[in-house]
Design goal:
The complex is a heterodimer. Chain A is α+β, with helices and mostly antiparallel strands. Helices cover about 25% and strands about 20% of the residues of chain A. Chain B is an all-alpha fold. In chain B, about 75% of the residues lie in helices and about 0% in strands. In chain B, α10 crosses α11. Classes of the chains: A alpha+beta, B mainly alpha.
Chain lengths: ~575, ~325
């Protein structure tokens, strides 16, 4: 009797266990196949060899960093149990080192264990001077990375870092498997095609077939740390075409489940969404479309001294002119014409994250042609008979350049018209994006050289901390022939007080204090009108209505939580 | 004839070398930069390091010679190694690498051949099949309603750009009717009837778009050639001999008219490999044409140079083939 009971109990238990196991086995891969379309196709699965967003997003499904940023900009642990801080002892009191402790039992997709050595190897892989690592900036000022034991990594910086979360936070710096990339350091990095196309990772998917610039076929990672995830057994990551056809594939024909970066006119997007098959998602990061005013003289007659601090600009040096330029612009109309739901008016060059958004510059939302005219009259710019203001023989004639892009050309046309109403003559110029942003020394059309009176483009920064971004406008960052035109301070703004604030922020750890400093720096720039912000641009994506769990993330990869997606 | 062929083949070598140098020179001196399309979050010093790692700091002539060595010596050696499964030397040689994917360009080309040949090749064949009967009938019944309609459709096919017809077809058949997919799946393996039907469905629209365009040109050629021959004396003789009209037209006139048309077709074959760049983009067929566009936009110089040079080789070769074909088909033509 007892033995029968025992057998019954054993049978019952094993039945229960098998259903539980079967249940969790069924949970992974239960939703079959999903399709993602990125209209810029992925060319490589290694973000260290390609800074392109499409490549970073594609590889984020397979290889992961120690921590991600979530959709609100907060850090969430991925391969660790908690984010190291000064409070929990993870960050040293003098802010020169940070110690990450990996979670127990993590496995690579080939079954081997994830160890601190992999993290150390990855750091050295990127910091290798011959590697051409595109994420080198995130390892800036790192003097050493060592494994204290199998699961503990210590990163040491050369100076105190109030924000030590550069390396291995965010999808731009994932952890690579040391064994797979062993022979791929330094100059050999680009030759390891097999590893670059099929990295072994800790992410929810593994690459089953990689066709460069075309399609990536992925299957669920059987060694993924959560046995119930991912919900999809397989995934196709297709690339190519343009934004409009990608949107159509999700919103109108239902062939795909998710489309990234839909830079399309808002009416067309709304029309497509009306069909009811998908939803348009938008999120706002720090991307701001802005005008950068050249405070130096770009005149061709100056030869090598063109656009250098040696010669101040004949009329842009006058703050009244710069302010008038800003007042004449109707920003709400620009947003409506160019971006619709995917744009907001902004009067700050640092609108996001919210704690850094300055409240002190409101008022630019309303176009004020009369006020601009009055300001210029007061400053002595007399309206000439040809409709162009002049003073002491200097005419307000502007060369306005930007990259080739339909929305930007629309903006140029509108702004030219408004400026003609305040007596400013504008010549428009557009340059191919690859040349404009290319930084080629021999080209006169790069945005660093700024051989024009002002230029328009958009910029943002990685992660949520604006310290490096605001540091772009230090005096030392002015691009000039001496530093091969490599610098981020396009307006050639130079202010000792501003530089002092940048230095102060580099030594401040308290978040509220940092926010105060960032706001102060933003205000200094805005009130000098050297940078005129136009539109706070959002990221736009589309997801099929049958797809659940999508959280558009502007601080990290779009696919940061693809493990949580389901039908 | 044989001497002529040999002479032409020998002459292609300096021609191709000259073409390769011109391609290299033009692409190299253009103000373009492979780091231009990277996000602005990458600071300028890192971009400079990237440029150096891609070899952009060396002088132009040095890079040209390096490319020549990689393309003319290393790549063929690699191909021989792969085909015959042998290893020559140490097997580890510098190959022409794409800057964007950091993988050998030849591998990319081979990967994309299937879809380009399938879609664009098929459309060329379909175009020929449509064009020849239309050209024959249009010429035979000149100025009839069939001829007028044929002329009109040719004019449409020739002047309406493929991006318009492509989009029109997508809107009608994919969005509204939902019959065909608008995006080509390059990973589809045809191993069952179901998959074969899927392949047909996803090929119909791009093939028809291109076939329409090709057929327009070819049918005009066919028509003109037929009209020329229908006026000849031997046609009258054939009819006088009592031959059936069908035999006169299809056996005698058509064969003679096909001579110039066949050479035009031969000259158009390199275009098949170039891929129909626009159509490939619209339907995301991701073949050789799309590879070229991506290379151009990303300033991926090795990729663009290699692809352009491959196309140049094909054009030169098929020009030679067309000339020889003309000589073979037409007994009146004899080269020395």
């Amino acid at each position: 009797m007892k033995i029968t009971n025992l057998f019954m109990a054993a049978a019952g238990a094993s039945l229960l266990a098998s259903t539980v196991i079967a249940g969790s086995h069924e949970a992974r891969g239960r939703d079959g196949h999903a399709n993602i379309i990125y209209w810029q196709a992925a060319s490589i699965m290694n973000p260290y060899l390609s800074g392109g967003t499409k490549d970073i997003d594609a590889s984020s499904m397979v290889i992961e960093p120690l921590a991600h940023y979530d959709e609100n900009g907060n850090m969430v642990p991925t391969l660790v149990d908690e984010i190291p801080t000064v409070a929990n002892g993870g960050v040293s009191a003098d802010l020169t080192s940070i110690t990450w402790k990996l979670s127990e039992g993590l496995k690579w997709s080939d079954g081997s264990a994830v160890t601190a050595n992999d993290v150390v190897f990855t750091a050295n892989y990127c910091m290798d001077p011959n590697g051409g690592c595109q994420q080198l900036a995130k390892f800036g000022d790192v003097t050493g990375v060592e494994a204290l034991d199998d699961l503990t990594v210590k990163i040491t910086f050369g100076s105190a870092k109030p924000f030590p979360y550069g390396p291995f936070v965010g999808s731009t710096t994932p952890v690579l498997q040391a064994a797979q990339f062993a022979n791929c350091s330094g100059a050999a990095a680009p030759t390891c095609t097999e590893a670059n196309f099929n990295p072994i990772g800790t992410g929810p998917f593994v690459v089953s077939e990689f066709r460069a610039n075309d399609t990536i076929s992925l299957t669920a990672n059987t060694e993924y740390r959560d046995p119930a995830k991912p919900a999809f057994e397989s995934l196709t990551f297709k690339g190519g075409g343009d934004a409009a056809s990608a949107a159509r594939a999700v919103l109108e024909t239902g062939e795909f489940d998710y489309a990234w970066n839909l830079q399309i006119a808002p009416e067309i997007l709304a029309q497509m969404e009306a069909k009811g098959m998908g939803t348009v998602l938008s999120g706002f990061g720090p991307l701001v479309e802005r005008l950068m005013i050249n405070l130096t003289d770009p005149s061709a007659s100056l030869g090598d001294a063109r656009s250098t601090v040696a010669n101040p600009h004949p009329f842009m040096s006058d703050i009244a002119v710069r302010q008038a330029l800003s007042m004449a612009i109707d920003r709400p109309l620009l947003v409506e014409v160019g971006y619709g739901k995917a744009g907001k008016v902004t009067c700050n060059v640092l609108p996001s994250p919210a704690i850094y958004d300055s409240p002190n510059n409101a008022g630019c939302e309303v176009q004020n042609i009369d006020g601009a005219n009055a300001l210029l009259d007061e400053a002595g710019w007399v309206m000439g008979s040809d409709g162009v203001r002049a003073k002491d023989g200097v005419r307000l004639s502007i060369l306005y350049q930007t990259s080739t892009n339909a929305v930007r050309q629309d903006f140029q046309a509108l702004i030219k018209q408004w400026w003609s109403q305040i007596g400013i003559e504008t010549e428009l110029k557009n340059i191919d994006a690859a040349v404009f942003f290319g930084g080629d020394q021999s080209s006169p059309d790069t945005f660093q050289k700024l051989f024009a009176d002002l230029e328009m483009y958009a910029n943002n920064f990685d992660g949520t901390d604006p310290e490096a971004y605001m540091g772009n406008w230090k005096c030392s960052e002015i691009p000039s022939p001496e530093n091969a035109w490599l610098g981020g301070n396009m307006p050639r703004y130079c202010n000792a007080d501003y530089d002092a604030l940048v230095a102060e922020m580099a030594g401040t750890a308290d978040i509220a204090e940092r926010a105060r400093l960032a706001i102060a720096m933003n205000d200094m720039l805005m009130q000098s009108y050297s940078i005129i912000p136009l539109v706070h641009r959002g990221n736009v994506a589309a997801a099929a209505n049958t797809l659940k769990g999508v959280k558009l993330n502007v601080w990290d990869s779009d696919l940061w939580n693809v493990a949580d997606w389901s039908r | 004839m044989f001497n002529y062929t040999i002479r032409r083949l020998i002459f292609t070598i300096p021609t191709l070398l000259f073409i390769s140098f011109v391609i290299f020179f033009i692409l190299d001196t253009a103000p373009n930069d492979p780091t231009g399309n990277l996000p602005l979050t990458i600071p300028p010093e890192v971009r400079e390091k990237i440029r150096i790692s891609l070899g952009l700091d060396k002088p132009m002539f040095f890079r040209y010679l390096l490319w020549c060595q990689q393309f003319f010596i290393n790549e063929p050696l690699n191909m021989i190694e792969q085909w015959f499964n042998i290893t020559i030397g140490d097997g580890d040689r510098l190959r022409v690498q794409s800057w964007a994917t950091r993988s050998p360009v030849v591998d990319l080309v081979v990967e994309r051949m299937p879809q380009t040949l399938w879609v664009v090749g098929m459309s060329y064949v379909v175009g020929i099949i449509i064009a020849i009967p239309i050209g024959v009938i249009s010429a035979y019944k000149q100025y009839s309603w069939f001829d007028q309609i044929g002329t009109f459709i040719s004019m449409l096919g020739f002047s309406v750009p493929t991006f318009f017809t492509g989009l029109l077809l997508i809107v009608i058949f994919s969005v509204n009717l939902g019959w065909f997919p608008s995006i080509y799946d390059t990973t589809l393996k045809v191993d069952s009837w179901g998959n074969f039907w899927l392949q047909v469905k996803q090929m119909i629209m791009p093939v028809m778009v291109l076939a329409f365009f090709n057929a327009a040109q070819l049918s005009r050629f066919m028509r003109a050639s037929m009209l020329d021959n229908l006026q000849q004396d031997y046609v009258r003789t054939a009819r006088a001999k009592g031959l059936k009209e069908r035999v006169v037209v299809l056996t005698h006139v058509l064969r003679n008219s096909l001579i110039p048309v066949v050479t035009v077709i031969a000259l158009g074959v390199p275009q098949v490999f170039g891929g129909a760049i626009i159509t490939e983009q619209i339907f995301k067929v991701n073949g050789l044409g799309q590879l070229l566009i991506i290379g151009i936009q990303g300033a991926d110089i090795p990729l663009v140079q290699t692809l352009t040079f491959i196309f140049a080789v094909l054009i030169v070769l098929f020009n030679l083939i067309a000339d020889i074909l003309y000589g073979l088909l037409d007994p009146r033509i004899r080269y020395d």
